[in-house]
Amino acid sequence: MAAWACISDKSLKRLEKVQSRCLCGILGAKLHTSTDAVEVVANVTPVRLRIQELCTMEYVRLMQKPEDSVLGQLLRSSSVTNNKFTPMSYLKYLATSFHRITDNAEIAPEHKTRPQMIDLFEGGNVSQLNITSEAGTDCVDIANAVTHFISETHSSTVICFTDGATTDSEVGAGCAAAIVIPPGPDSKEIQATELLDKITDSIETELTGIAIALEIVIGLFTSGTVVAWTNTVILTHCKAALNIILESHVYGNYQQIIARIIPSLLKFHNMKCHISLGWIPSHAGIDYNEQADTLAKKALKDSPISAKGQLSLPACKKMVAKNTKRLWQQRWDHSTTGRVTYDLIRTVGRSTVFPSDRCCAISYCRLLLDDSTLNVHQFRAGLAQSKLCDCAQGVDDLQHFFFECKNYKTIRHDMIEWVQSILTLVDQHKRPNLSTSLLLAPSGYRQISSRVSGEILGCTFEFIGKSKRCL
Ligand SMILES: [Zn+2]
Known about the structure:
Elements: H1 9-27, H2 35-42, H3 47-64, H4 70-77, H5 87-101, H6 118-122, E1 126-129, H7 139-153, E2 157-166, E3 171-181, E4 190-201, H8 202-222, E5 231-236, H9 239-246, H10 255-270, E6 275-279, H11 287-302, H12 313-334, H13 339-344, H14 358-368, H15 375-380, H16 398-404, H17 409-423, H18 436-440, H19 450-466
Parallel strand pairs: 1-6, 2-5, 5-6
Antiparallel strand pairs: 2-3, 3-4
The chain binds zinc ion.
């Protein structure tokens, strides 16, 4: 558990050294390369920050335990002895920053007993629906398949679209939305949104969307607006939320919202009504889906939420991970080493794309890390007599290697031609000039899409490979 918690600084430094050496070995980087840069290129969190992350999550898990649990009591009663942290008091110390980032929100208690929905499924009242699988990946075909489905079933089915939104990409304040279309040609659709009064994650907001839809449909049935034997279809783009309901796994993590969904499912069961849950892709131009998305986002923007409710374990985990990334970014921004790599890769926490050929991958990696067998690097390390290239026409640096050296004239011609043809996909006014940083880290350019970036990297890898140099 908290074995890492009260580790001495000396041991910590040793661990950092071990991690750095391992990463250098895996990446093929030279041993004296900046550790900060190596970690960013490898996308591996620095040891200190990772330990903080693990220990904070340990704190969260212990706080979920009931008041009378031994571990919970140990945590609450721990204190610093002789100016040294005990594992538990270290966890408590980290909790200060956890409570700050979560606005002192309470952590939801753990739930050992998982709610059973199995009976409902065995009765055949809830099933999975697939309406877009045959449409392939083309957005127009998918949107058409959904429109076709609606027109085919609308006369006898309540169709619901649900969505959720969070202030940050996956965690933060949240809002859920549902659009319910009652059956019949003149039916008026019902729109509803609900703000979640706590820090939440994307899956919980999506589950809330489904809960709202179920409640609206039950309202329609009980008020007699819609005949209760009508089928209900709920469509969402969140596979995780569907799986939680259909396959009944990770219930414990979203206990609160599941506890709200179950009574609705039970009512459907008692009324002998059938529900189908279906997945549809997001951002495929499906009209109602886009509407639900806009509804949720707008409601979230219009009313800032005071985060008071209890935090689920996944929301805590995402908040902690987000905070770790923020601290790592700060560390990278202010580091005094690896600055050439920093100019290429500014953002931490992104995976680097490597070529499949190991030799080429090592060369590419060393170029990113500004420590290769180019003469300019060898000279700096005292391993070469001169910075000059073998062609004797210039300093053997990145610029010379990629754009000037006469030894690579033919392969360069191909590469430049390719890269320039790929760049025609970028808006003319925002098109970047050919440069070593464009070739090595195209994803650092905002105006370049991931597809274009991948194509450019492909050209770079091919050039490095064909140059036959082991950099
Ligand atoms: Zn040369």
